[in-house]
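#lab-general

N.A. 3:47 PM
ok so I finally got the sequence cleaned up, no stray characters, all 143 residues accounted for. can someone with queue access submit it? mine expired

B.Y. 3:52 PM
send it over

N.A. 3:53 PM
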Amino acid sequence: MSVKEPNTTDESKAFDEATARDESKAFDEATARKEIEALVRKEIAVEQAKKEKAAAVVAKEADALNDPQRRVKIKLFKDNGKYKDPLFVSLGNYRAAIPRGVEVDVPFYIAEHIRETLEQDQHTAELISVMVAEYENNKQALE
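B.Y. 4:20 PM
back already:
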């Protein structure tokens, strides 16, 4: 039995070309994978930077909102009766007669104090109305 000698040049050439294609394909896949991974890492870094920037802006705004020395504009109700005179405010080292009916610039903590005071006045007025009604009902029941 005779063994056929392969045509080494043609087979070797075909083998080399197939190997080169496989290696090229593997190289292209590896390169593509690396490029995709790099793009994904870059996108993640960009998104993280955006989040950090947004968080910094929110923190700065929160600090500004919590700053008791920041100034705000207020306008107090004015009429020709009980609410015609300026409102005198004394809180800590701040003292002022705040005019009614015009917009004025005051520290935030003063505006907040005035808001809380007006809210409490409203609650007190409602409570007085309820208590007067109860008194009138009890008075009529006793007569």
